[in-house]
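New to this. Please check both lines:
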Amino acid sequence: MTHRQRRFGAGRSVLTFLAALGTLAGAALVGAAPAGAAPGWTRLATGVRYEQFDISAAAGPAHAHVIRVDLSEPGVRVELLYPGAVAARAPVSRLATAQGALAGVNGDFFNISETQHPGVEATGASVGPAIAQGRALKAAVPDGQRFGPALPPGTSTRDVFGVGTDGRARLDGLALDGSVRTPEGQLPLGGLNQYALPVGSVGAFTSDWGGASRVRATCGTDRDRAAPCSTDTYEVTVRGGQVVAAADSPGSGPIAAGTTVLVGREAGAQHLRKLSVGSAVTVRHRLVAVSAQTAYRFALGGYPVLDGGRPLPGLDDTTSAVRTAVGIADSGRRLYLLALDGAAGYRSGLTIAEVADTMRTLGSVDAFSLDGGGSTTMAARKPGSSAVAALNHPSGGAERPVPNGIGVFSTT
């Protein structure tokens, strides 16, 4: 079992796999639905294999692309793909190429648009927590501020898929533990490099955020993403343990290494206004796991759909779409990365309940849903090629830039 202990209802019937299609040569990206040759897994590297197949689904046939990753194989690992900043995006193939990955899929849901807040920049930052190479990049936005389909009952934006320093994958939750110590006292830290801060809180932005505007962090409420932006905001810049600048509204632009920008809204803004240039300030933050005792080397957000071999109760079984997911098997030693094809003949996709069944059929004990629709991308470096390219047809006709993903790395 993962960190969640649940009672489960009866699972849906296991989907029927109509045809195993299997070779990389079959995924010719020319706009038509893929057509395969001999069935079976294709070796990408020692411990990393690829397969594609059709699935009989409620809304019509879906086409799945799957990469199986053996984390117990020497030289095989997975890491966070991201563009070097939280508030930035790039296509999966470009992220994988830049970081030297063999393959990858897109990751977390993200702040894709701001139609509710005219004039406010969409940051492109992801919803949930993120850890890269053992360093906490960001924490989770409030549940009501997330983008993506409704969360299954009992889940939250703090849920993560991750791999610990022990090399094993697991599902968990990551909560922000942080504080701001000032001459006036100590304040709880409400956010870390997030596109949305809890109402009344103070959030920290570091060089990991990038250069995007921080205004979006003060828009909406904990329950309503579309609520107006706050009119009571304040920002202070901390360097060398003291305030070096202050402003009445959040700014933008790169943040220098060793510098922290504190953004406050409502009660948080009122606390920051008590500070002046030269005030001593100490900011502390870390991400704390709900259940794992082992530190995480890599983690990203989404939401669980399969736990202990059983689908979570209340999974949506009516809305079909192109999906991305990751499954865990063999006590965290084996992964299944799933990306559906977005070609016209398969675009109806799967429901979330069907995704859970598919991951279980593949052999997953736990599974985690990632961003889907136009974001769904699986990319890999084919045998004999030096370039990483998309294996599926993205439903928008081209790869969508995304904030992060799961990268598969191999030294063989």
In short: Residues 1-38 have pLDDT under 50 and may be disordered. The first helix runs from residue 92 to 99. The chain has three helices and 26 strands.
